[in-house]
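[agent] plan:
  1. take the single chain provided in the ticket
  2. run structure prediction with default settings
  3. attach structure tokens to the ticket
  4. add a short note for the reviewer (M.T.)
[agent] executing step 1
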Amino acid sequence: MTGADLCLTVDQAAMRDQLILEHIPLVRYLVGKISAKLPPHLDQQDLMSSAMIGLINAADRFDPARGVLFKTFAEQHVRGTILDELRSYDVLSRSMRDKYKRLEKELHHLERVLGRHPTSEEVAAALEITLDDYYALLEDVHVFTFISLDDSWEGDDGSQLCLADVLCEAEAKSPQQQVISMQLAEALGLAIDTLPEKERLAVTLYYTEDFNLKEIGETLGLTESRISQIISQAMVRLRSRLRLHRD
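[agent] step 2 finished; step 3 output follows
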């Protein structure tokens, strides 16, 4: 290795370390933002550790020659590692995923049969469980409904956009992603408009106003637990409608 190569390597290592240090506040922000949308029993420190791994990996892989801001590049990696951490939790076991799929299927079936959104009582009856058990199921799948926002739509040019990018702000979208985003935003807006009033308000506050469960509960005069159930039910309805739009 020549002296010039060694100098370049040292400079690259210094730039990597600087990028990591400068973007630790971004990691804290993303973890805090995501944690605010999750049940309080989930360990924020575990998410922080995973997020830091995502930041380090982003710094290792970052190539400024590609013309992408490191902040944008790092945010994608950090969010990805946080979601991977959440997916590893027991609440996202195969059994829970099967319950979620059955819930989504039953809700969609009842909507077609009834010609309207079914009530919680009607869904519980269709699932052959008590209303209390249905509410408990909605709380169980809350994390899954959040993570499922990472499901992506792929354009003709291979570019991807996930539902989370539509519900939240996203930087540096390609022209193809912008088109997909506009189409999904329109479909999402129409789907949200059809939700029952409390679900519509809760989802709006949750995803567009960045309210956490406690703040939404205070606004609507309900417990955090009940808000979690309402949002979970709303997201199952929305995902069903958006899947039809995608397909």
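[agent] step 4 note for reviewer: The two ends are 54 Å apart (CA to CA).
[agent] ticket updated
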